[in-house]
Amino acid sequence: MATAPLSGNKPQPLVFPLRNLFADNFVVYYKSHGYHFNVEGPTFAQDHELLNEIYDFLWAQHDSLGEQIRQMDKPAPSSLKAILDISEITECLKIGESSKTMFTELCDDFETLLRNAQWLFDAADENQCGGLNTFIGDYMRDLSKLHWKVKATIGRSMK
Predict the structure, then answer these.
(1) Mean pLDDT, each 10-residue run in order, the chain (159 residues)
(2) Letter string b/e over residues 63-83, b meaning 16 or more CB atoms within 10 A of that residue's CB
(3) Which CATH superfamily is domain 15-154 in?
(4) Domain boundaries, the chain
(5) Using CA atoms, how far apart are residues 78 and 114, in angstroms rounded to an integer?
(6) What SS3 string covers 18-55?
(7) The predicted structure's pLDDT at residue 157
(8) Cα–Cα–Cα angle for 70, 56, 90, nearest 5°?
(9) In sequence order, what DSSP letters do the residues of 65-114 get, joined into one string?
């Protein structure tokens, strides 16, 4: 993730990666919510419930990430086009995937979210942004738990 100063000669290198995480988080939220509507199969009840847990978490984080951006006196992306342009995550392009495919894609997306959040956590630590550092640390802790549940659901071994 690149950092750059904002206009007005006041460098705020963390706002750009925070916007990226905001966009990535939203795309994974939207994808998981779509999967929730469309999941089928013999494990429907469990999959449906886990997807609900995932999108509820991501939605709450989306609001909190946006508030973190606003606390930097910068606007949060507010159009779907802007979010998709910023995001590193690929939106769901095909309906009717198996639940294993859905969870495999979410597992990969969680790895991207965690990698980008770790980068932001480290940068916040280096820039002595304790509040942001704590927020991102909590985000990673809770996302890691969901990541573990998804990996267990698809039978992906721990690395």
Answers:
(1) 34 84 98 94 95 97 95 93 96 86 96 96 83 93 97 78
(2) eebbebbeebeeebbeeeeeb
(3) Ferritin, core subunit, four-helix bundle (1.20.1260.10)
(4) 15-154
(5) 23
(6) HHHHHHHHHHHHHHHHHHHHHCCCCCHHHHHHHHHHHH
(7) 59
(8) 75
(9) HHHHHHHTT-PPP-SHHHHHHH-SSPPP--SS--HHHHHHHHHHHHHHHH
Describe the crossing of helices 130-154 and 99-126 by its angle, rounded to 10 degrees: 160
Residue labelled with tokens 């998709």? 84
> 149: which 2 tokens?
């549940």
Strand, helix or coil for residue 61:
helix
Token pair 């750009």 in the structure block, residue = 16
- Residue among 90, 118, 115 at smallest CA distance from 104: 90
DSSP conformation class of 15 = H
Q: Rounded to whole angstroms, what are the CA distances from 79 to 56, 85, 86?
A: 21, 10, 11
